[in-house]
Amino acid sequence: MHVGELLYRIAEHGVSLRCGRIKDRLHYTPAGALPPTLVVELKEHKHEIIQILRENEELRRTGVIQSKRQVFELAREYFGLDNQDGAA
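Above: the chain's sequence. Below: its structure in token form.
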């Protein structure tokens, strides 16, 4: 699965992502909100997601994706996704 699509699916479950500022740890809340298939995908793309969280200026301060709006902005910025055509 493409990372942009993964971030979108995570947001659909109402999950917030955050990462450590120094250690490469990725956390999500609420715990248990993601189905096992998305947890596996999250682990597979962990380092890429952490890099996105750390590079994004707004997220640099908190390290947390807090809204679907942020997911869409990240997807457009990093993966060139355009929600006008309905693609996720």
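Residues 83-88 have pLDDT under 50 and may be disordered.
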